[in-house]
């Protein structure tokens, strides 16, 4: 049975978004405002995304205030907001409806024909690709995406069109709440065990998710669990596996891009020139294309859109090229994501001589149960630099440090060139001094590692000044 939306957003309302600076919450606030609702929001600190939220017409306050909820029809919050938050407490006292973000997102999805992208990783890129394909087809899709789409300069927009493209987050069960028409499922892997408890529960959650969807279900045949679920749900499949319904074949890397053909039903639909690195992005593009074709978009239109895809923030984001050194930022934080990014760099055709991987583990509770899973993640790197765990709001656990990942890698691959740099200043200085012409340095994680390329470049400039003869 398709989930029901808690709110009717077809009529004007007054809504307040707690933690409006968060990536998912800022997108919700922007869409609500562009729908025509009266929207306010609050966050504990000023940040750059709030300028975009304000530009959409949301009145944003820095700091929380009990009075902020008094004239609202409902307030919405994410899992990151603690139950003791004073705005949540005040809403309960005065009788204002408090709704988790999953409920508000479900209410948004109910206002259009919604296509979601779900999976352990690859969601943001695939959602962005699908949205741009539908835009190229003239369908004016609404969208709510977990990262900024380079081509659009935003991760959310309400156009009033028939279709909505949305990223379905499984981390807290949000994907199970959304009333959807169709979905892409990229993969099913281990993550968010703090919510699910076991890998089996994760699989069961995606099984339930698929059973609720009446329209096209497009699943990756290259992923073992996806392939099993595809059979169970009679899904359309895609991937590099020749048994898939949509097969990416004749894949060729050319200078940081890929060309490939797509075969469907034994017939070639045509070619795609994708300006992204990595076989994982070929799969993502094929999944987006398979969904688009399944709802009636001509292949040539979809291929043209993909050829212009500018990427997503923090997905192989080349931040600095200086004196032969390339500094890249990437959101990868799970083992298979890391392996995919490093393999992409190694086989991209860019001519880099050495791949340097820098990884900041994320969340104590995640690393406590997953640290051994990282043992093979860095095989494509020539040098691995590991740093301390970024908490992301989780509580430290005795004995759980980034050194666990060091141990996992060296136990499995003792020959690995690996450096343990738990301190940020030491990490920055080490990289600034050791990176040389022909290196690509990819810093990965979902914590404050995002600023590392800029920090390393600033230190490189300082070192050049210090080394000038006086």
Care to give the gist of this entry?
The protein has 470 residues and is α/β, with parallel strands linked by helices. The protein has 15 helices and 21 strands. 34% of the residues lie in helices and 24% in strands.
Brief descriptors of the model:
470 residues, alpha/beta, Rossmann fold, UDP-N-acetylmuramoyl-L-alanine:D-glutamate ligase, Protein-Tyrosine Phosphatase, Chain A, globular
Question: What do you see in this structure?
Answer:
- With 470 residues, the protein is of the alpha/beta class.
- The protein folds into 3 domains: 14-100, Rossmann fold, CATH 3.40.50; 112-307, Mur-like, catalytic domain (UDP-N-acetylmuramoyl-L-alanine:D-glutamate ligase, 3-Layer(aba) Sandwich), CATH 3.40.1190; 317-466, Alpha-Beta Complex (Protein-Tyrosine Phosphatase, Chain A).
- Helices cover 34% and strands 24% of the residues.
- The chain contains 15 helices and 21 strands.
- It has helices at 23-35, 49-55, 86-94, 101-109, 123-136, 193-196, 199-211, 224-233, 279-294, 299-307, 335-346, 364-370, 403-412, 424-434, 452-466, and strands at 14-18, 38-43, 59-62, 74-77, 97-100, 113-118, 142-149, 154-157, 163-167, 182-185, 217-220, 236-239, 246-254, 257-264, 267-274, 317-322, 325-330, 354-359, 383-386, 418-420, 439-444.
- The strands form 3 sheets. A 10-stranded mixed sheet has the order 8-7-9-6-10-11-12-13-14-15, sandwiched between helices.
- Strand 19 (383-386), helix 13 and strand 20 form a beta-alpha-beta unit.
- The termini are far apart.
């Amino acid at each position: 049975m398709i989930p029901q939306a808690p709110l009717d957003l077809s009529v004007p309302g007054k809504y307040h978004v707690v933690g409006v600076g968060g990536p998912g919450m800022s997108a919700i606030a922007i869409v609500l405002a562009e729908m025509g609702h009266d929207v306010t929001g609050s966050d504990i600190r000023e940040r750059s995304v709030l300028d975009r939220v304000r530009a959409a017409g949301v009145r944003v306050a820095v700091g929380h205030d009990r009075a902020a909820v008094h004239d609202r029809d409902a307030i919405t919050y994410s899992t990151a907001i603690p139950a003791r938050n004073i705005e949540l407490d005040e809403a309960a006292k005065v009788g204002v409806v408090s709704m988790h973000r999953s409920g508000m997102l479900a209410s948004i999805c109910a206002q259009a024909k919604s296509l979601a992208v779900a999976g352990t990783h690859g969601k943001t890129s695939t959602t962005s690709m699908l949205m741009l394909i539908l835009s190229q087809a003239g369908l004016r899709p609404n969208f709510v995406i977990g990262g900024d789409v380079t081509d659009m300069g935003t991760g959310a927009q309400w156009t009033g069109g028939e279709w909505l493209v949305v990223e379905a987050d499984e981390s807290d069960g949000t994907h199970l709440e959304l009333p959807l028409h169709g979905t892409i499922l990229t993969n099913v892997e281990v993550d968010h065990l703090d919510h699910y408890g076991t890998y089996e529960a994760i699989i069961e959650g995606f099984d339930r998710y698929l059973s609720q969807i009446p329209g096209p279900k497009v699943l990756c045949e290259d992923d073992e669990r996806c392939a099993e679920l595809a059979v169970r749900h009679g899904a359309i499949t895609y991937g590099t596996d020749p048994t898939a319904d949509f097969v990416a074949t004749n894949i060729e890397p050319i200078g940081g891009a890929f060309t490939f053909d797509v075969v469907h039903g034994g017939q070639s639909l045509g070619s795609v020139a994708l300006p992204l690195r990595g076989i994982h992005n070929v799969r993502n593009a094929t999944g987006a294309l398979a969904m688009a074709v399944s709802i009636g978009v001509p292949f040539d239109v979809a291929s043209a859109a993909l050829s212009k895809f500018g990427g997503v923030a923090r997905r192989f984001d080349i931040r600095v090229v200086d004196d032969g050194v390339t500094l890249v930022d990437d959101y990868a934080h799970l083992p298979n994501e890391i392996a995919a990014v490093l393999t992409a760099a190694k086989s991209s055709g860019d001519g880099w001589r050495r791949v340097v991987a820098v990884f900041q583990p994320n969340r104590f509770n995640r690393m406590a149960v997953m640290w051994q899973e990282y043992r093979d993640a860095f095989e494509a790197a020539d040098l691995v630099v590991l740093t301390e765990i970024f908490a992301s709001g989780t509580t430290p656990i005795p004995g759980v440090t980034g050194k666990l990942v060091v141990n996992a890698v060296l136990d499995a691959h003792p020959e690995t060139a690996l450096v343990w740099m738990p301190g940020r200043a030491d990490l920055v200085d080490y990289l600034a001094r050791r990176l040389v012409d022909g290196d690509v340095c990819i810093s990965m994680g979902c914590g404050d590692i995002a600023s590392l390329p800029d920090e390393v470049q600033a230190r490189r400039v300082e070192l050049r000044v210090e080394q000038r003869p006086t």
